[in-house]
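Box 3.1 A note on notation
Throughout this textbook, protein chains are presented in two layers. The first layer is the amino acid sequence; the second is a token string describing backbone geometry. Keep the layers aligned when reading.
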Amino acid sequence: MSELVTRNDLDKALDQAVTTLRGEMVAMENRLSKQIKESASEIAQEVANVMVEQLRSQVSVVDEKYQDLPSQYAALRKDFDAHAADAHLHRHRPAP
């Protein structure tokens, strides 16, 4: 024959089950938290890499656009100096 189970026995069994479930839930929460942190870190790293590539691309466009400026400046400066040195093009103003 089966034994009779008292209310006290049921309370103890229920308390033990709740304690076990809480422990499992805490462990699950810790694992999920760790996975979320790892995923967030990976996503942040990927976003940073994409941003760096975008900046490189934008800087490259500017570099290419103004790459020939030093030679243009040198030619312009040479023309200006030649013009400034030509005394026939400029009248001397009398001092006030």
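The mean pLDDT is 87. DSSP finds two helices and no strands in the chain.
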